[in-house]
Amino acid sequence: MTDESVEISSGAAAETSDEEQASVPITLVASDKLEEALARLAPAEAAWARANGFRGALGASLALPDAEGGIARVLVGWGTPAERRRTRFGLGRFADTAPSGIYRLETPLDPAEAEEAALGWLLARYRFDRYRKASERGEAHLAVPEGVDGERLGKIAEGVFLARDLINAPANEMGPAALEAAAHKLSERHGAEIGVTSGDALLDANFPLIHAVGRASAEAPRLIDMTWGDADAPLVTLVGKGVCFDTGGLDIKPASSMGLMKKDMGGAATVLGLAHMIMSLGLKLRLRVLIPAVENAVSGASFRPGDILRSRKGLTVEVNNTDAEGRLVLADALALASEEAPGLIIDMATLTGAARVALGPEVVPFYTDDDTLAADLARAAVRVSDPMWRMPLWPGYEADIEPGIADLDNAPAGGMAGSITAALFLRRFVDQTAWAHFDIYAWTPKPKPGRPKGAEAQAARAILAVLEQRYGRS
Asked: Which segments constitute the Cytosol aminopeptidase domain (predicted)?
C-alpha cells in the first residue's frame, strides 16, 4: 500500500529537462485575461479554444491537437486571482485526469506559485487502491518547473502519501500492532532507533493513562518511541494521537458518529509522514517521535465514567466522558516528552469536534504560548498553502477543567470552547512554552484539487517549513 504510492509520487516529482523536447506544454490561462492569452496562440488553436467554449475557468482544461492528431499543448484555466486564493492546487484538477505523457509548465510563474503548482500535481496523483482494482489511468508526469526543488517536493509528497495510506486503511488492518509495524518500517528505512512498551508493561513504566484507555481492546495498548539524528543536535519531539478506532468506550458513540473513527489515529499518521519528510530531507535536528497507540473499545476491562486516574506526571484526572480519551493518552506521552526538555514539542491529534465547528474541515486550529513560533507557523501556512489558525489558550476557561474532586476533568460539562479546553488540558502536561498543539481533522470530505476524498496530512507541510527554516538541512 504505502510503498506503491510513495514510488508513484517520487516518479512524478522529477522529470529532467532532457525530456523537454518530448513534453507537452501547459499554458495557464487566466479567465480575466482570456483574450490576451488566446491572441498569443496560433489562429487555429485560438479558434479551437473558442469553439470548445474554453473560458479559462480555474481547473478547466482543453487539449489542442497537432497535425498528426496528438496533443500539441494543453490549456489549463487559471481563473481569477480571487479564485486562486480560494482554491489551492489549481493545476491538480488537470493532473487528476491527464492523459499519459510528460508535461511542462510553459507559463512563467513566480517560485512560490510554481512550487504550489508542482506539488498540487503530485498530490492529485494519489490513489488508495488497496481494496479494489487499480484505476486505469495514464502515467502523467510533470517536468520540474524552473526554480523548484523537485527532489524536495517528491519527499514531501511521499510523507503525505504515507499519512494518507495509514489513515485510509480500515481499523481491522490498522490497529495498534499494525501502526507499530508501520513505525518500525519507517525507522528501518531511515536508520532510526525504535522501542515499544506495550500491555501491562505500560503500568510498570508509568504510563497509566495509555494503559487505561487501551486495556479493553483485543490488541494491547502501546507507546511507540522512535529517535533519529545526531545526539548533539537540537531536539524536536513529535507526539501523535494513535487511537486506531474510537467507539467512545462505555460512553459509546452513536453509529453515525462512529463511521469515520478509523481516522482517529490521524495525528499519529501525520506525525509519521512528517517524520519521513524530516529524515529524508536530512534536517539538522535530533528527532523523537512518540505515539500512544490504542483502541478505545468496550469490554469488561473498560475504564468508566467517574473513574479517577493518575497520570504519569502525577496529576489526577476525573473521567467524565470515556469518549474524551485522546487527551488522556496524549497526556502521558507529553509528560514523557517534557522530561527530556526538548527545544520544541509538537503534538498532533484528531481531538475535538469543536475544532471542526469552529474552523471547518480545511483550516487547522493550533495552540501555543510561544508567540514567535505562532508567527512562524502562520507565515509558513500561507507560504506553502497548508492553512491553519492560531486559537487562544484562554486562561478564563482553566476553571472548566478543574472538577474539584481531582486535579483535572477530561470532559468539562456544557460543551462550549471544547477545542480550547482540550488544549488547556494538554498544556498541564507540558513543562515548557516551546510547544504547539494541532487539532487536525485528517480528512477531506469531498474531492478538491490535489486532495482526493479521504485521508489528509494536515499541517505537516507548514510545520516542516518552520523546522527547515529554524534548523536547516544537511
From this structure: 321-328
The ranges assigned to domains in the chain are 2-147, 154-471
Q: Tell me yes or no: is domain 154-471 CATH 3.40.50.300.
A: no
Helix axes 150-168, 460-471, angle to 10 degrees: 140
Catalytic-residue membership of 327: yes
Does CATH number 3.40.220.10 belong to domain 2-147? Answer: yes
Question: How long is the chain?
Answer: 474
**Beta partners for residue 291, in sequence order:** 224
pLDDT beneath 50, residues of the chain: 1-19
pTM score over 0.85:
yes
Q: Is 133 a catalytic residue?
A: no
Other CB atoms within 10 Å distance of the CB of residue 250: 18
- Are both 2-147 and 154-471 of the same fold? no
The CA distances from residue 300 to 204, 216, 252, in Å, are: 22, 7, 14
Percent of the chain with pLDDT over 70: 95
How far apart are the C-alpha atoms of 349 and 240, rounded to whole Å?
6
Using a 10 angstrom Cβ sphere, with 0-12 exposed, 13-18 middle and 19 or more buried, the burial of residue 263 is: buried
Active-site position among 327, 428, 448, 461: 327
Q: What is the pLDDT of residues 57-108, one digit of tens each?
A: 999 999 999 988 889 999 999 999 999 889 999 999 999 999 999 999 999 9
Using DSSP's 3-state secondary structure scheme, residue 441 falls into coil
